[in-house]
Amino acid sequence: MPDQFYAFARTAKDLSRNPLGIIALFILLIYGFACLVLGTIGEHLRTVERLPLIFFLVIFPVVVLGVFYWLVAKHHYKLYGPGDYQNEENFFKGSSASASVRQTSKNKNPEGLSIKNDQDRKPKNDEPGKQGNNPQNIEDLLSFGKGSVVAEFFEMIINRDLKEFDLSTGSTTEKILVKQLAVTRAEVWFDQTYNSIFGSQIALLKLLNERKYPVDSVVMDSYFEKQQQKFPKLFSTWTKEGYLNFLFVNSLIVIEDGNYRITPHGIEFLMVITKKGLSEDRDF
């Protein structure tokens, strides 16, 4: 019996690393409770009381299989497990496929993250055989993402990863694809950061961006204390380090010689918010 228990525990641990596995464990828990109820007090229930449980036990697996099929067939590129969020780079490796799918329907450049669509990028010359060989067209593709600090950062990461696996990055096609993927990763980074950041953290980035010089810990302590007073239910148990950790992890701010300053990533993040017209008035 102990061996079976430990085997089940190991299986549950492995399943918890996969998004569908997490759903399966949750479903197993619900189904187990239903079977337990029916098995222990089923004989004491009247037919009218027993029928809903029986229908549930029969129909529930069919519904679950249908949901699993729908998720895997239609939304497999949106499924992430806990391991995908261990760090920023690990997340982007898992989510780049998802973003690539979105990129085909919504093309954006890093400077404001909005570019002309593929139709607009086609050369004006409609003569067959000349469109793909237009030097200016190729040059435009090679400059894709130029001017974005975030896109250039991810381009460096991608090239580094490719070199680690001894993969070629020298051809024109490879360079273009790397730049396209880098911009896609920049978009995913922005979306993830914006969806998770507090409104007060955006205000802090703006404050740091307006200062000509980095701010010291006294200013940062004072700012955090104001947020604790403004949102006591959330931040009463937080530390300043915990509050700032999100900004450090996403490379929005850095600390140098005990002083805090906004990074080029943080400046570009604020620029994209402004250019997209997104709200800065977020929760907390």
From TrEMBL:
Name of the featured protein: Uncharacterized protein
Keyword field contains Membrane: yes
Annotated region described as Disordered, given as residue ranges: 101-137
UniProt keyword Membrane present: yes
Membrane-spanning parts: 20-41, 53-72
Ranges annotated as biased composition (Basic and acidic residues): 117-129
Alphabetical keyword list: Membrane, Transmembrane, Transmembrane helix
